């Protein structure tokens, strides 16, 4: 099984530990990587992927959904107040390098209205992992768009705060991706069902 380091450590490894206790005959190998593996050549049964899926060579099962939120350090926001979507569009963003321009999202406003939002200022900072984006945000480098499950503790401690919290970014999917074989192995189906039960 392969996952991103952050989601693996916080969510999948605790689930795998319980799953392996339920199925003691199974041997479990977990690999953390921010890069998408070739499941067949690298002999993975399952990859857990977040966001939206682009690769159609594999089958995918939706496990659950999660919120993504724009966050910044209170010290940064004190110096660069963001009170309108126009200010948000021209703010200093820290972006995941996997995102491609134009950086656009449909937002949901406080009255459930749909609003097209685009980052207008080219980001100066990018990184290849959510934990690096979070570290930049904690260091006062700008706004990062991050999974709520990753930043929950930092929000609770007020190390980070939500920016423009009345507006919601699209919820993201958690997918179990597996090779498109004629017969899905029983262990793969059992793990997907277990994750849905635990996270759904």
Task: Give an overview in words.
With 200 residues, the protein is of the alpha/beta class. It folds into two domains: 2-66 and 172-199, 3-Layer(aba) Sandwich (D-Maltodextrin-Binding Protein, domain 2), CATH 3.40.190; 68-162, D-Maltodextrin-Binding Protein, domain 2. The protein has six helices and twelve strands. The chain has helices spanning 5-22, 74-79, 85-89, 130-138, 148-156, 186-199; strands spanning 2-3, 31-32, 47-51, 58-66, 68-72, 93-96, 104-108, 114-118, 125-127, 143-147, 161-162, 172-179. A five-stranded mixed β-sheet has the order 9-6-10-5-11. The radius of gyration is 18 Å and the shape is elongated. The protein starts with a strand and ends with a helix.
Short descriptors:
200 residues, alpha/beta, D-Maltodextrin-Binding Protein, domain 2, 2 domains, 6 helices, elongated, LysR family transcriptional regulator, LysR-type_TF_proteobact-type, LysR_subst-bd, sequence-specific DNA binding
Distance between the termini: 19 Å
Mean pLDDT value: 93
Would you identify the CATH architecture of the largest domain? 3-Layer(aba) Sandwich
**Number of distinct helices:** 6
String of helices and strands:
EHEEEEHHEEEEHEHEEH
């Amino acid at each position: 099984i392969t996952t991103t380091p952050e989601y693996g450590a916080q969510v999948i490894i605790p689930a795998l530990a319980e799953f392996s206790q339920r199925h003691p005959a199974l041997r479990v190998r977990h690999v953390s990587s921010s890069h998408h593996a070739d499941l067949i050549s690298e002999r993975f049964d399952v990859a857990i992927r977040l966001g939206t899926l682009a690769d159609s060579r594999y089958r995918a099962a939706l496990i659950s959904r999660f919120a993504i939120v724009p966050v910044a350090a209170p010290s940064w926001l004190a110096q660069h107040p963001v009170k309108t979507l126009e200010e948000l569009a021209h703010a200093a963003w820290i972006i995941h390098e996997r995102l491609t321009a134009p950086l656009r999202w449909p937002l949901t406003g406080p009255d459930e209205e749909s609003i097209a939002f685009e980052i207008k200022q080219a980001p100066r900072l990018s990184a290849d992992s959510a934990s690096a984006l979070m570290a930049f945000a904690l260091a006062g480098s700008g706004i990062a768009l991050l999974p709520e499950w990753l930043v929950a503790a930092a929000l609770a401690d007020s190390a980070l705060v939500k920016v423009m919290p009345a507006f919601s970014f699209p919820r993201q999917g958690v997918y179990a991706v597996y090779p498109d074989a004629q017969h899905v192995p029983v262990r793969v189906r059992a793990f997907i069902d277990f994750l849905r039960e635990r996270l759904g």
